[in-house]
Amino acid sequence: MLTTSNIRNAYEQIQKQLFYMIPEKWDRVYLYASVVDHFNGLQTGEMFFYYFPKSIFKKNPVNVYEVPSKFNIDESAYLKLAEKLYGEIKKLRKELVTIGEKPWSSVTISIENFKFNAKYEYENLQDSNYTSYDRHLIWRYQYLDIPLSSYSRKERKMIEEYLNNQKHNNKNSVTYQEGIYKKTVSNITEYNRPQEPVKNEIDKLEIIEKTKKGNVGVDIHVDLENKKEPIIKSQILNMNH
Questions:
Q1: What is the pTM of this model?
Q2: Residues of 17-37 as b/e, b for ≥16 C-beta within 10 angstroms?
Q3: Do 63 and 50 contact (CB within 8 A), yes or no?
Q4: Higher pLDDT, residue 239 or 128
Q5: Would 221 be classed as within a structural domain?
Q6: Is the dihedral of CA 81, 86, 90, 96 positive or negative?
Q7: Contact between residue 77 and residue 68 where contact means Cβ atoms under 8 Å apart
């Protein structure tokens, strides 16, 4: 895969944003993001990522959208950081298309052992036999050390079928690797925190983007049962660009 100064800068910005969003020491980071282009100019996609805390003992991966409640960080400010990260990933996609690369439908970014890896996949997500939830389960199995036995029988069958199909379709992905960004980056814990922790878990960020001439705005839809404790099961950002 070709690289340019703009593309290398995009990789750097993604790493810096990831490092900033993780408020504790970590060993590994795994991120998934998708972008689907529609004929009417609408783009849909989703993003989620997990990190493994640094420890001499084995620890479970942390869903990044649990960070606000886990570390008592302002939730709305943190969601803006997630939105910015997704924007950086989309900039990377645009730069790759500019130099003639095929638009990818999803990317998995991993950072471990001082290496930054990006695996681009080109599956037609609009015409897929697998739902977004299915792909999330498959991805978690592939990258987060979650044993197959922890899934239901139906989920295990689905995961095994997917992986078997992928063995015969290895050409539908491209991998890029480079060293990690080495300069020190401060993290999110420098944010001013609210007095009371937010107790809700945000499972993932689903992003819908639509392009319009000269009009930029963000509408964040949140299911609020009361003003003090917002219930956010799946954050949806409608972005009119």
A1: 0.77
A2: bbbbbbbeebebbbbbbbbbe
A3: yes
A4: 128
A5: no
A6: positive
A7: no
Check: CB of residue 122 under 8 Å from CB of residue 96.
no
For 195-216, what is each residue's pLDDT tens digit? 444 333 344 444 444 333 333 3
CATH number for the domain that contains residue 158: 3.30.500.20
Percentages (nearest 5) of helix, strand, coil residues in the chain = 35, 25, 35
- Residue 113: CB atoms within 10 Å: 9
Quick check: is 117 in a domain? yes
What are the tens digits of pLDDT across the range 151-203?
A: 999 999 999 999 988 877 665 788 888 888 665 566 766 544 444 443 333 44
Tally of structural domains, the chain: 1
Please tell me the distance from the alpha carbon of residue 87 to that of residue 76, in angstroms, as a whole number.
Answer: 17
Collect all residues with Cβ–Cβ distance below 8 Å to 123 and sequence separation of at least 6. 105, 106, 172
d(Cα 150, Cα 152) in Å, to the nearest integer? Answer: 7
Separation of alpha carbons 73 and 191, rounded Å: 7
Integer Cα distance of 179 and 111 in angstroms: 9
Domain of 87 in residue numbering reads as 5-197
Amino acid at 33: A
Written as one letter, the residue type at 231 is: I
Is residue 217 in a domain? no
Establish if 143 belongs to a structural domain: yes
**Continuous segment of H or E residues that includes residue 170:** none
